[in-house]
């Protein structure tokens, strides 16, 4: 029997319609069952994962990717715990807000409802299969999961946990579809199914996201890259600036909320840059410096235009001295990726102005860019980060997987 | 000099970046100037409009379209008044909400910001040129306006009012682009400019909307059709039901929030359908009735599957007797277009359940579907109605032309 993505998506849409009105308790019971199945079925999951690991070794896939692929008992427990955390989160669905009485007499409000069916397209990490399914189900949605070919056995074994949980709770199993193969044609067809699928969230490299954006008829959440800036203002508390710089650049380098560019107001450059240079030296951070800052560093390279655009994801940073506040904001507007930007300043007006005018998903005063994720911002688990503005901008939690409809309470009113 | 949509969109993006942080007063002053220019330049506008009308007559364009195209002094004043109303509306931009203190010490909130650049693609009504520009500008956005070829002279004359106002207020004129020709290639290129344009709102027939959806790389707001349902429940107040039916079907037929299908609970069919039949007879409404209701009507036709899908936009209605509440909801789920649905009932639980489970943009209890527009729902002027769920669902006012970014107020916090 061949798999038809069109039929699966249509069935998911139908199942999602029923699932969407399920109450919070029933949804949480389902998620708890999924969490339990992860432990119950751990042997089968680890056997399937070993198949993927063997294939990865055979295909000489690089070590870091093999590591992302690997499951073990501790990682399975971490995946289970993430699901149990989602159970604890509030249910975004059903909230009614902005209720007002209109001159006609009707009362109007907005009610939060599920989006419908969400398709995830992702690469090697098998945990996404469970994380994404759990968040979509929490928000009352159907979900279609299309993982990478490197993780296909792991993903199918994890899918089994979800299917068993759905069956145990007598819910329509079609509400979660794990695409059973990684045929490119299936993905291409998926992107045309705008009658059944409401949103596509690709998670992976820029190539994948661009491919989906350019070929999809379904709205796509885009997250291209995180070129995050730290701007040390004239009135900065330089000690705060230094610890925010150190934390942003060195605490974890491979993540999109790490710092890539340091901008320093010219009037504090002479004091701050030697402090920064000592810390970079100490932590082994490679520097790409502008003409006005290069003399403060031991072994800096001259920064090129490419450096202002670079997402190093490594112990590497671009440094530029700026004339003033406006120059910093202009630089960010030109080279930023819409992810996260930080000002360090004690100047009340400068802090508020930066927050007001900088056009990125997360704009901060006097805090580390590393706080830019769903958990730290208070959203709970995160399904992705949007750096485009439609529907959601920035880290996306369960609420971003919902929308609002208008609800009207009348008493026989008609329009004159 | 040939017009380049790519260059215009790029310039609009740059101009919009500056315009986005303009305060409410400055934006309102600009809008007021546009309103004044409409009266100041009325002669040139009416001369240009006459050119379009002459061409329309020459090309034997149908009378209703010619009427939509026609401007006169009264209509110009109405367009001006609509702009002045937008001036009076609150500015959605800048609002900070959901501020919370996180365990790390940072305070996190969401701030409402403009979307960026919005492209409107529309057909013959020239008033859209001003309405859409005013709403986009109110919300801090740049706008690209591509009207139909029938209205090109009118649109360019109206555009002049906007350009003069922008110049008088020393604002970058590129923030509003009126595409100076109606070349299909220009529109096709526009739909690929996802680096400069954030959202496309097509307003017109289903063909236009489908074409844009299938070809755009930019997110599209879709409004296919309004197949609105009225369900008369077992516990309905039948007098309320009758006046809501009459208002919904007959007050104005050519609009998307008029009723197209009447569903009646079997236990009240015998009482309610003769009341409905008398009103339909009186108002000249043609009926397409199911097997169980046809006997109540004088000259009804038997309803076919097509009737359940029909958007008549005329004095015509489909009528079906349903077994119960669930059957009504199922019918709406199957045949509804996601626009507006109404239940008439005195049963508290049924009213709330209908509002909860029906998956349309506007769901009402005991009120006329004709209230389903931006003005009546309290949004002020409306730029369109979305029947797809991403970003906006239902009537869209100025707030729907914005998004939210995260703002973080820290005091030197770093991540552990």
TrEMBL record, chains A, B:
An MF annotation (GO) of this entry: NADP binding
InterPro entries in the cross-refs: Ald_DH/histidinol_DH (IPR016161), Ald_DH_C (IPR016163), Ald_DH_N (IPR016162), Aldehyde_DH_dom (IPR015590), G-glutamylP_reductase_CS (IPR020593), Glu-5-SA_DH (IPR012134), GPR_dom (IPR000965)
Domain (Aldehyde dehydrogenase) ranges: 5-279
Ligase is among the record's keywords: no
GO cellular component terms, semicolon-separated: cytoplasm
Catalytic activity: L-glutamate 5-semialdehyde + phosphate + NADP(+) = L-glutamyl 5-phosphate + NADPH + H(+)
Pfam family for this entry, one: Aldedh
Subcellular location: Cytoplasm
Keywords attached to this entry: Amino-acid biosynthesis, Cytoplasm, NADP, Oxidoreductase, Proline biosynthesis
A Gene Ontology biological process term: L-proline biosynthetic process
UniProt pathway: Amino-acid biosynthesis; L-proline biosynthesis; L-glutamate 5-semialdehyde from L-glutamate: step 2/2
Family: Belongs to the gamma-glutamyl phosphate reductase family.
NCBIfam families: PRK00197.1, proA
Protein name: Gamma-glutamyl phosphate reductase
Annotated gene: proA
């Amino acid at each position: 029997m061949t798999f038809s993505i069109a039929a699966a998506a249509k069935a998911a849409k139908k199942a999602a319609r029923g699932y969407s009105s399920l109450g919070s308790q029933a949804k949480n019971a389902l998620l708890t069952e999924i969490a339990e199945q992860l432990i119950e079925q751990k042997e089968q999951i680890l056997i399937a994962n070993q198949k993927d690991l063997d294939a990865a070794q055979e295909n000489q896939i690089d070590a870091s990717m093999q590591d992302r692929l690997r499951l073990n008992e501790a990682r399975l427990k971490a995946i289970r715990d993430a699901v149990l955390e989602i159970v604890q989160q509030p249910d975004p669905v059903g909230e009614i807000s902005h209720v007002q009485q209109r001159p006609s007499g009707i009362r109007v409000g907005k009610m939060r409802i599920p989006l419908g069916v969400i398709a995830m397209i992702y690469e090697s990490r098998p945990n996404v299969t469970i994380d994404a399914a759990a968040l979509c189900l929490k928000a009352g949605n159907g979900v279609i999961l299309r993982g990478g070919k490197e993780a296909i056995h792991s993903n199918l074994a994890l899918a089994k946990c979800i299917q068993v949980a759905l069956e145990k709770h007598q819910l329509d199993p079609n509400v979660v579809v794990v695409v059973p193969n990684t045929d490119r044609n299936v993905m291409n067809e998926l992107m045309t199914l705008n009658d059944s699928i409401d949103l596509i969230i690709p998670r992976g490299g820029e190539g994948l996201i661009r491919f989906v954006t350019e070929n999809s008829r379904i709205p796509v959440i885009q997250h291209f890259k995180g070129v995050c800036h730290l701007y040390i203002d004239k009135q900065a508390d330089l000690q705060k600036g230094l610890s925010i710089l150190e934390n942003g650049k060195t605490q974890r380098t491979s993540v999109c909320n790490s710092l890539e560019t340091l901008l320093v107001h010219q009037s504090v450059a002479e004091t701050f840059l030697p402090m920064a240079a000592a810390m970079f030296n100490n932590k082994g951070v490679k520097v790409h410096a502008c003409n006005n800052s290069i003399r403060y560093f031991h072994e800096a390279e001259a920064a090129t235009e490419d450096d202002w655009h670079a997402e190093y994801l490594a112990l590497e940073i671009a440094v530029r001295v700026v004339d003033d506040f406006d120059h910093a904001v202009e630089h960010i507007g030109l080279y930023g990726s819409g992810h996260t930007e930080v000002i360090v300043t004690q100047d009340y007006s400068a802090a508020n102005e930066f927050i007001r005018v900088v056009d990125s998903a997360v704009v901060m005063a006097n805090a580390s860019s590393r706080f830019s994720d769903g958990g730290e911002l208070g959203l709970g688990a995160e399904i992705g980060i949007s750096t485009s503005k439609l529907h959601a901008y920035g880290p996306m939690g369960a609420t971003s997987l919902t929308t609002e409809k208008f609800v009207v309470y009348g008493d026989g009113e008609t329009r004159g």
